[in-house]
Fold this sequence. Notes:
Elements: H1 6-13, H2 28-55, H3 59-80, H4 85-107, H5 114-161, H6 165-197
Helix pairs in contact: 1-2, 2-3, 2-6, 3-5, 4-5, 5-6
Amino acid sequence: xxxxxxxxxxALLASATPVFAQTDEPDMVExxxxxxxxxxxxxxxxxxxxxxxxxxxxxxxxxxxxxxxLEAARQMQADLGSDSxxxxxxxxxxxxxxxxxxxxxxxxxxNQALSVVADTWQARIDEALTLREQIRNxxxxxxxxxxxxxxxxxxxxxxYEADLADQALETMRAxxxxxxxxxxxxxxxxSQAGIVAEPSNVATE
Length: 205
């Protein structure tokens, strides 16, 4: 099942308030699109593996599918890890937004109405912190997935070499199920990125 968010999210972001185009803060359109590309690539790889599981008793095809999943998992970790551009952009964005919130709170001493705007920035910061935590968790899970697939790849190949296709497919189904769960988590990250990128999606009290 392929994740398709790009056109919807870009349409949402097109209506974002002009203030963001006037600053040096990270481009939220690019951030959301980057996350969407990562999610879509993972979804495509899961679809390939699922098809192999459903139709193949060929050990070479299974090994190829698992190799592709390893590549996707490694790329995901690189794209979402603490050294990634996505991670750096979120941290930079949080710093800029915190400065705006703090400035408004200081100025609210003379103009109380500014405190409402400061609260709005705090709400956006809270949503961005949620996004960052989701990405942190996904990065950690992708590292664990790499280790698991590397181990299970050997098991699957050994099963096929022993003409134990049923056991090989059972092992691959377990991997596919975990990848499906990761797909759902990536969908949540894409949705959260859309909330952070679009100010009108952030509810304030």
